[in-house]
Amino acid sequence: MNPPTSTNLPDAMRYRLGSLPLQLLALMAIPLLAFLTMIAFGGVTLHRVATRDLVSQRDVRLVRGVAASLSERLDQQVDTLARLAGEVQEGASADEVIGNLGYWPDTIFDAGLAFYDDEQNVLGASPQAHRWHASPAILDGLRQAEIGDGPVFIPLIQDGQNITRVVVIAPSQQGTYQPDSDFRVFATGVISLQTLGLNDVLVSLQNTNNTIVYLIDEQGQIIYHSDPTQVGMQVPDLSYVREMQSGASGANYHPGDDGGEVLTAFAPVSVAGWSLAQEDQWENVISPALRYAQIAPLLLLPGLLIATAVLYFLLRQVVLPLRNLENRATGLAWGDFYSIEEPVGGVAEIRRLQGAMKHMAARIKRDQESLRYYIGAITQAQEDERARLARELHDHMVQSLIVLGHREQLLKRYLNGDPAGDEVLKDLRKKTQEAVDDLRRIIRAMRPIYLEEFGLVPALEMLARENSEADLPITFKTSGRRRRLEPEQEMALYRVAQEALNNARRHSAATRVTLEAHFRNDEILVRIADDGIGFEVPQDRISDRSDGMHFGLMGMYERADLIGGRLDIQSDEDEGTSVALTVPLKPSRSRMSTPRVVMTQRWDPDANGNPEPEAAAASEG
Questions:
Q1: Per-residue pLDDT averaged across 554-574, rounded?
Q2: pLDDT (tens digit, 9 = 90+) per residue, 350-379?
Q3: Do residues 273 and 153 lie in contact, with contact meaning Cβ atoms separated by under 8 Å?
Q4: How far apart are CA 231 and CA 214, in angstroms?
Q5: Which of 34, 54, 161, 455 has the greatest CB tally within 10 Å of its CB?
Q6: What is the pLDDT of residues 208-233, one digit of tens each?
Q7: Cβ atoms 307, 32 nearer than 8 A
Q8: In the prediction, which pLDDT does 349 show?
Q9: 618 pLDDT band (50/70/90 cuts)?
């Protein structure tokens, strides 16, 4: 009996899901990699967030400091101009005040110094101031200063160049100016950003060569820029630009023109209403060590490769050898003792396990051979005992019944024509003949004379005749060149056919049975098939069952094993049963060859209970 092949997909899927590689992958590798990945990416993310906060806070503090320094310098210029305006307000001559300053005004206000009254009249001016003291921008600034009662800063921008000058207008201080006086003095000075030391101050904001620093006025026009070509241009109307123009300070991350992330830190120059900003690419802000930390998750790749290598090793050296060993063990359970001999490889433990299974298989094989020899001896003893009983029944019981029949004939002369006695004698003679026939049938079942004298095919033909009934006709077919087999082979084939026919007659509820014998070149096939109700063929070996069922099938399997045959039983519910025994042919010690025949006969009992042939044998070639 061959091992059953499982076609149950859920069972196969359950087997695969329960395999060692998937369990290692599901319970160890994937959770470990997921945990490491979560830690790595989580750590990098937290580190990135913390770094962004630290860098933005650092840049904001730095920009605030520079903006405060610039605001302080401008405030100093305002205080200077307010003090000078106060002197003129108190009655000093503007030219006298300028003359008393000597070269100092040209040092602080490198583009000149001038004084105005509240009617925008020039009260006095240094030589450099004569170039600009009557310009519309100055006059407009004076009006703003008068209205706002505070300093006014007017940038004089030259597009594309970092040579911007700043007009600073400061009114006289309240202590020197009375609101009910006739006029108020305004001091105006023009100073370049270089004179203010802006370049030196802004150097501290240059974190990298790509750092951009710019200064914008209240209208968003660029006063100063690291790239001079940007001077005079208007900054975009972005959210953080609006925050800058509102006088706020802070930091903003936004995409740059090249797609990278840009950090902009900004702070107000409060005294002038300007805003100072610093822009830098995020990748340029962080140190190389921090950039390398961002690619730390890539270090998981070697771990993944190592885990894959370990799984591959386990698969090749543990799982596959175990599966091969499992298949060999399954074959061993079904009687294949040679498959376990081939090495399966793997680790030393698996090889030792296979060695132990080889030793076990060798012992089982020896025990089975001993058991087979024992069963063969028992079977032969049974056949010998049957033959002895058949001979004794034939030599004693049958002969005694025959003699009894003859004695019955002698009784007839003593009845003197008595009809009642004749009837009793006739019935006695009939019963005696029936007993003889039954006894001879029992003898043939115990010792098939046809098998010993004429061979397997005539014996099977007679077996089909004797078992054929009115409601269960048996069709016999044979093909191939008939030949004699070894006595034990013929007896086993006959007994298997006999048991199969008995099962069909008793249990199948069939309406038609076919008995076939086919001789081939190197084997003979005997098949018994019916159209009955069928039964569920056990998937395990019948000989391994201990539940007391299928003893008839067990006997057929044992007889097939004894002669080296292969028994195949197929049955489905309501589709009948087929029992096929294939035996390799061996030369017989008493071979008898006959012409090749193809014979099909069918017997149906007649009214007297005797079989009646419907078709005769057809001889070929």
A1: 87
A2: 888 888 888 888 888 888 778 777 777 777
A3: yes
A4: 9
A5: 455
A6: 677 888 888 888 888 888 888 888 88
A7: yes
A8: 85
A9: very low
Q: Give one DSSP letter per residue of 502-560, joined into a string.
A: HHHHHHS--S-EEEEEEE-SSEEEEEEEE-S------SS-GGG--SS--HHHHHHHHHH
Of 249, 266, 294, the position where a domain reaches its end is 294
The structural domain count of the chain equals 2
CA 4 to chain CA centroid, Å, is: 29
| Residue 578 confidence (pLDDT) | 93
Place of tokens 């101009």: 81
Q: b vs e for 132-147, b when ≥16 Cβ sit within 10 Å of the residue's Cβ?
A: bbeeeebeebbeebbe
Residue 611 dihedral angles phi and psi, to the nearest 5° = -65, 145
Q: What is the helix (H) or strand (E) element at residue 598, kind and residue range?
A: strand 597-605
CATH number at residue 268: 3.30.450.20
The residue among 616 and 252 whose pLDDT is bigger is 252
Domain interval for residue 198: 58-294
Q: Is the pLDDT of residue 159 over 70?
A: yes
CA distances to 100, 238, 291, 467, 505 from 470, rounded to whole Å, are 154, 107, 98, 10, 12
pTM above 0.90? no
Inter-residue contact 224 to 163 (CB < 8 Å): no
Can you tell me whether residue 353 is helix, strand or coil?
Answer: helix
Question: End-to-end distance of the chain based on CA atoms, in angstroms?
Answer: 38
CATH number at residue 600: 3.30.565.10
DSSP secondary structure string, 232-249?
TPBPP--HHHHHHHTT--
Q: Give domain status of residue 324, yes or no.
A: no
Q: Among residues of the chain, what percentage have pLDDT more than 70?
A: 81
Q: Which amino acid belongs to residue 450? A: Y
The total of other beta-carbon atoms located within 10 Å of residue 368's CB is 14
